[in-house]
Specification:
Layout (H helix, E strand, L loop, with lengths): L1 H20 L9 H24 L3 H9 L4 H29 L3 H7 L16 H9 L8 H35 L5
Helix pairs in contact: 1-2, 2-4, 2-5, 3-4, 4-7, 6-7
Family: Belongs to the binding-protein-dependent transport system permease family.
GO biological process, one term: transmembrane transport
GO cellular component, one term: plasma membrane
Length: 182
């Protein structure tokens, strides 16, 4: 389904729009996998955020309502601020999951190593470069193989950092509001 989305909305349409708006767009560009990854990660983030919002203690909600706040004010002034660290943590976990995706980017964005600020040009990701560097017959100590391991180490460090930050935020939320079911 995601490849059909790329073919219909990510690639061919840009060639037609390029003529209309004067954009310099390639068939394999960064917009298509970005949109597909966003669609793919939304259920993950929304599910985690829903769990966090539902774990806000009922005593906070009831206390707010007892003090005369409306349901909307309770959500805006009590529930969302209490759940905000968990929601941010869910977004960070979603980002770390998206960083490791390979196949969507290979199919939708291509494999051209390109550093540009234009999202309508070809691009690649770290995981795609690792796969490209490790395919074929190469010696272990070749520069390309060692660069793949270095890229893997960088990807691991970034993902670990995002996961640790999200775990610390959840722990802070749990301690602050004494929530035990997260």
């Amino acid at each position: 389904m995601y490849t059909a989305f790329r073919g219909d909305y990510g690639g061919a349409d840009y060639r037609q729009h390029r003529r209309i708006f004067g954009l310099d767009a390639s068939y394999n560009n960064a917009v298509a996998p970005g949109v597909v990854m966003g669609i793919m990660i939304i259920p993950f983030i929304s599910s985690l955020s829903d769990d966090v919002i539902n774990s806000v203690p009922d005593s906070m909600r009831q206390g707010s309502l007892a003090l005369g706040m409306t349901k909307g004010e309770t959500i805006r002034d009590v529930v969302i601020p209490a759940a905000l660290p968990g929601i941010i943590s869910a977004a960070l976990l979603g980002m770390s999951r998206a960083l490791g995706e390979t196949m969507i980017v290979v199919m939708a964005a291509g494999m051209r190593p390109n550093l540009t600020a234009n999202p309508l040009e070809d691009m690649t990701t770290v995981t795609v470069r690792i796969v490209a560097a490790l395919t074929g017959d190469q010696e272990f100590e070749s520069a390309e193989t060692l660069s793949a391991f270095a890229l893997g180490l960088v990807l691991f460090a970034v993902t670990l950092t995002l996961n640790l930050v999200s775990v610390l935020m959840i722990r802070r939320f749990r301690e602050k509001y004494r929530v035990n079911n997260l």
